[in-house]
Amino acid sequence: MIYLQALKQLPASQLRAEARLTRQLQGLFAEVAERTIQELLKRNRLPTDDATMRLVISHILGASEDYQETLSGEALQAAQYGRNRIIRELQRLGVSVSFSEFSERVQKMIMEHVFTASQHTISRVTGNVMQNLTNSYASGLGIDDAAEELRKVFQAMQDYELRRVARTEINSFQNEGAYLTEQELGVRYHMWYTALDERVRGSHSNMHGEIVRVGEPFSNGLYYPGDRSGGQDTIKEWINCRCRTVPFLMPEGKMAPPGASHFRESDLIDVRR
Asked: Which of 139, 141, 148, 165 is deepest in the core (most CB within 10 A)?
């Protein structure tokens, strides 16, 4: 069935959004990195107390508002894209529904999630920098060598970490927009949908085609791909995820298996017998 065709490539608009957000984050953290390293160098020794450590990382913490502002515009666009995707899919399935924007209430809720995501990233960067400085002190490095080690941490962010962050954020907010739209329009079921390529984590490949009621968790505990409501306990399921959901309309004469929290199309029961 058409539902089970794998998502072979991401839409060009999503790839452009990821690239755009990556560039914005790289520019932001390039400045943060330089300021942090200069803050370290001017102290002539590695921080050994909390007060000095807070001064060294102050530029990272101070970037929280800029990070949130950078992410907010992209997040709202991504969520609207997810909404439009669901509406297009419902129209394709014969459902009469028109395109529209999110209400102010929903936009406010999305912005609250932007704040949470921003805090999570800033906290992770701060923790990585503090751990790096602690390791440098334990290794007996001088201030110049320690600064070089710290520079490597920031360079790794530029080369890989920020791309992963951008991919996670864009896909997460697209899927949140899709999920909120399904709830608003009364979609009863949706299906987990993935690329089925070598980059998909094993647990998600196994979930391709899994169906649940909208508002109930999939077998991995997420309510939609990229759902971060479970926090660190579910991070291995949502970080760097490219999956999505599609609405599933129950075929005429079929019903879900009684008592099943999740099922597949092949599990449907024929009620016409």
From this structure: 165
